[in-house]
Amino acid sequence: MLGIDSSGAAVGRGNLRNNIAYTGTLTSNMTGTSSAYNSWDLGVTLSDSQFRSVSTSGWDAPRQADGSLPTLPHLRLAANSTLIDKGTDVGLPYTGRAPDLGAFERPGDTPAGQRYEAETAPAVCQGTIDANWAGFSGSGFCNGNNAAGAYAQFTANASAAGTATLGIRFANGAGGARAATLVVNGSTAATVSFESTGAWTTWATQTVTVPLNAGGNTIRLDPTTTAGLPNIDYLDLGTIAG
Ligand code: GCU
Ligand code: CA
């Protein structure tokens, strides 16, 4: 980026992070500029399919009622874009493990690495890891003992402190709902009722919002009745709102 020094001479200036340069001349006037975690530094492969849209039609759409720019799909990252989470923390809000490249952070992403399987350490299952009911993800699910307090626990890493949306995938082939408290870092954060899904092979996702610390968080599903938990497949850590 070209700037001017105190004597009026042209010099490179600025810190470039998390940017995308795509087609045309990727960079110029870079001498003196600090450049890292940009698409050209990372050597990521760029293509139109990285984006929801690369069309320029609709860019002259009217502003929204509150004066903000129209919400358009252009240059927003596609759900499977490899540019998601490739950036570095520059102090702006982001979702997932790291900021996305480009101007638009994808909200509500659950990128790979943010799914915590119940059968994978450091997760704890007070029961057995079973694989006899189809439809689970990974290599099995937690069949908790049918007892109050027989918990399933996950350790989820949050990129920042804030309110996180968790998705808990479960199957409950028993007739009635199964109740649990959701204990986050030792404190009860929510109560959850896992309704019957009708069959042990029918899996559903229960969504719950809890406060998380930056870094590792223990998230424990603690059943409150002797029925215990439903079968637990995984925990998805979704968007974190600051
Ligand atoms: C059955 C089923 C288990 C389930 C259990 C329960 O035994 O096979 O997968 O965990 O019921 O009621 O908890
Ligand atoms: Ca069980």
Fold and architecture overview:
This protein has 242 residues and is mostly beta strands. The chain folds into 2 domains: 1-109, no CATH class; 114-237, Galactose-binding domain-like (Jelly Rolls, Sandwich), CATH 2.60.120.260. 2% of the residues lie in helices and 36% in strands. The protein is built from 1 helix and 15 strands. It has one helix at residues 39-42; strands at 2-4, 10-12, 15-17, 34-36, 115-117, 124-125, 127-130, 141-144, 152-158, 162-171, 178-184, 187-194, 204-212, 215-223, 231-241. The protein has a 5-stranded antiparallel β-sheet, with no helix packed on it. β1 and β2 (10-12) form a beta hairpin. The chain starts with a strand and ends with a strand. Mean pLDDT is 91; it is low at 109-113. Calcium ion (CA) is lined by residues 127, 143-144, 146, 228.
